[in-house]
Amino acid sequence: QVQLEESGGGSVQAGGSLSLSCVASGATHSRYAMGWFRQAPGKEREGAALLDSDGRTAYGDSATGRFIISQAQDNTKTTLHLEMNNLKPEDTAIYYCAAAYGSQFSDQWISTVVGGTGNGMDYWGKGTLVTISS
Hints:
Layout: E1 2-7, E2 10-13, E3 18-26, E4 32-39, E5 46-52, E6 57-59, E7 67-73, E8 78-84, E9 93-101, H1 107-114, E10 123-124, E11 128-133
Parallel strand pairs: 2-11
Antiparallel strand pairs: 1-3, 3-8, 4-5, 4-9, 5-6, 7-8, 9-10, 9-11
């Protein structure tokens, strides 16, 4: 079993920045895809950013040019980061960390998952709330 724990959510004014982190622990694997998905009130979940263990990254349309996904690893855990800049009120949502393990992820898979609702990801965190005020 894999545990994902997000942190870093909060409230900022439009134009500001926030950074999110997600620590993955448990039965992780050396080959993985990890990403951030978000769900605004009354809306479907959508992908924000995704990366894989080969270093490839992909972004959802709303995140491109403003969000940066990165990772850090040590011997015991992988930490996923999301730097969010020039935030807008429409970025208000619960942000979820998600992971998939054990496969080689094709470019098409990555593009499809980050462009969708997260189908294909196996593990999910509980989410962290991001609120952007105008």
